[in-house]
Design a protein that fits this description.
six-stranded mixed beta sheet; binds zinc ion
């Protein structure tokens, strides 16, 4: 997850020695009895939660074509058992064609005026990829320094266990009504993304915690408040029916590759900023990674400049990015002395979270169609689009969440965005309009999700659990005080 350079100061309270190195994993001293009671409950549960997490992570619940369905069902059974054991009632399954079971469950609100919070996670995982790149077998959960390594343990089984743990912290009787939604085919994708608005009663809530993200760095509590949208465009150039000799015809024969390159060169300005009109770009006001952190994560060698101008967050999240993701032209090894008659390029546009990706796609296509390099028209075809998301962050659930994350991590929470999409967020938001959408969790930017040696840190797991429990308590209290009105 790429992030932004300027970040709010980390410490919520005065730091005695301004030159002291910040200790990212330090936790705050308990401030009052209620706080230490909650922390005590979390700490008392941590060992058994980790045991259950290891059990769950040992199941290769890969819901991709070509993988056996039995482990997915085994994970479903274990998750159902854990939910019942944690006090959830009304455990049901949503079955959709070609889709692994979606588990839903409820905990009724303790009083009629208590708010309802929807808790989302998924129990399927990515395939392990090349197992030779793993230091230990991907489905043998292995304790490592400060954490546990296994495929899917961060994305998203630790986050699922955070929800189970939050129910256990309150002995199965949390101070809010709870709706559980545990998906079984998130990684491959399914028809479930569009399902929630067709059955809104099942997803009605005042706030939802989509636990499929985590911290911009271990120790920095992070609320992911925006997701980029995406749109693909294909651009093609045909100038000749077939290749002709570059000695005999070159110099006058229209070269399709040259036309295409001239078109592609107009997409960015001299700084590397996207130069297509009509794409939304705003300053990023949240937190994120520093430039050195970004360089390290992205593997940008020292001396190689980053592209674009302005803050990193603006380039990565609240502004457009346009990447040539593929180019068809003769390969160098097979290059002949010939003028190229046909070439094409695949473009991937990432949009401001609030911009309609179809509108952004139109802007890009208009730009390309107007170009006519050397008078040659381009054939421009729209590809798939995916919506972005921007959360409203000023409501009572966000206030409670910021306070809960601050308490759990002992640092000021930052707002970050993500370049990746979580399509279900839009479906859930459409099913429960007006509900506040919170994205936080036990992952962190170095957890290797989707890559080899995926791991979760116990410090992040504990903090995410404490944050969720504290959030439920503080949100319920805010409701009692009438904050939502
Ligand atoms: Zn995930």
């Amino acid at each position: 997850m790429p992030q932004e350079a300027h970040e709010p100061n980390a410490a919520p309270e005065p730091v005695p020695d301004p030159l002291a190195t910040p200790e990212p994993l330090a936790r705050p001293a308990p401030r009052h009895t209620a706080s230490s009671a909650l922390e005590g409950a979390v700490d008392a549960l941590l060992d058994e939660l980790c045991d259950d997490l290891r059990r769950l992570a040992a199941i290769p619940s890969i819901a991709f074509p070509g993988y056996p369905p039995e482990p997915v069902h085994e994970a479903r059974d274990l998750v159902t058992e854990l939910l019942r054991g944690a006090g959830a009632t009304g455990v049901e399954e949503i079955t959709l064609p070609g889709t692994a079971p979606v588990i839903t469950a409820t905990v009724p609100p303790p009083t009629p005026d208590a708010p309802t919070v929807l808790l989302y996670a998924h129990y399927d995982v990515q395939p392990p990829g090349d197992e030779r790149l793993w230091e230990t077998p991907p489905f043998t959960p292995t304790d490592i320094d400060g954490g546990i390594r296994a495929r899917g343990i961060a994305d998203d089984k630790a986050n699922l266990m955070v929800h189970i743990g939050a129910l256990r912290v309150f002995g199965g009787r949390p101070p809010v009504g709870v709706r559980i939604v545990f998906e079984g085919q998130e990684e491959y994708g399914s028809d479930f993304d569009d399902y929630p608005p067709t059955d809104p009663g099942r997803f009605a809530c005042d706030a939802m915690v989509i636990a499929d993200t985590g911290s911009v760095r271990p120790g920095t509590p992070t609320l992911t408040t925006a997701l980029r949208g995406t749109a693909d465009v294909l651009v093609e150039v045909r100038t000749l029916p077939a290749a002709v000799h570059s000695g005999a015809y070159g110099g006058a024969a229209p070269d399709a590759l040259l036309v295409l390159l001239k078109a592609l060169a107009t997409l960015h300005d001299v700084h590397g900023d996207v130069a297509v009109e009509g794409l939304l770009r705003e300053p990023w006001t949240g937190g994120g990674l520093t430039e050195p952190e970004f360089r390290e994560l992205a593997g940008v060698p020292e001396g190689t400049p980053l592209l674009g101008s302005g803050g990193l967050g603006e380039r990565l999240w609240s502004g457009p990015a346009l990447t040539v993701t593929g180019l068809d032209a003769p390969a160098v090894d097979r290059a002949a002395s010939a003028t190229v008659p046909y070439a094409r390029a695949a473009l991937n546009l990432r949009t401001h979270p609030r911009q309609d990706p179809a509108e952004a796609q139109d802007a890009l296509m208009r730009h390309l169609r107007r170009l006519r390099p050397y008078g040659v028209p381009l054939t421009v075809t729209p590809g798939p689009t995916g919506p972005g998301y921007q959360a409203a962050t000023t409501g009572p659930a966000y206030r409670a969440a910021r306070s809960a994350l601050r308490r759990a991590w002992g640092a000021e929470p930052v707002h970050a965005a993500s370049g990746g999409s979580i399509p279900l967020v839009n479906g859930l938001a459409a099913a429960a309009p007006g509900a506040e959408v919170l994205l936080f969790g036990a992952e962190d930017v170095r957890c290797n999700l989707h890559g080899p040696n995926e791991r979760v840190l116990l410090s992040e797991f504990r903090a995410a659990l404490l944050a969720e429990a504290a959030f439920l308590a503080e949100y319920a209290a805010a409701y009692r005080r009438g904050a939502p009105a």
